[in-house]
Amino acid sequence: MEDGGSIITMTYYGAEKVVPHYNVMGVAKAALECTVRYLAQDLGRKKIRVNAISAGPIKPWRARHFGLGDMLNLCRAAPLQRNVGSGGGRKHGVFLLRTPVAASQAKSHVDCGY
């Protein structure tokens, strides 16, 4: 990436707070977020942006294995009273790749206020 670029990863609220049944994934996401901050610092001088997108609960086919059913029900209490859906994170990723926001390096929450 000699002309700059962008690195985007997905993270989750479980990196910040304890989420039942999320277990070691919370620790892994916390490490990922720390890595994003350090990479943003190191790669920023090379015009490479590093961002993490924290999406709210998204109902994957394996959600039942992690006990996420109750968490998805909590989305009704979010300010927008809905789940972000699987496309929300993708759309935000495309937004971050666009030139007008090329100066951003941060963690973004795309969670309907969850």
Overall pLDDT metric: 75
| Structural class category | alpha/beta
Beta-strand share of residues: 15-25%
* Computed CA radius of gyration, to the nearest angstrom: 15 Å
Order of helices and strands: EHEHHHE
Q: Summarize the amount of helix as a percent range.
A: 25-40%
- Tell me the number of helical segments per DSSP (H or I, 4 or more residues long): 4
Largest sheet: 3 strands, parallel
Query: How many extended strands?
Result: 3
State the separation between the terminal residues, measured CA to CA.
35 Å
Shape: flat
Given as residue ranges, the uncertain stretches (5+ residues, pLDDT < 50) are: none
Strand order of the largest sheet: 1-2-3
Description:
The chain is α/β, with parallel strands linked by helices. Helix content is 38%, strand content 17%. The chain has a 3-stranded parallel β-sheet, sandwiched between helices.
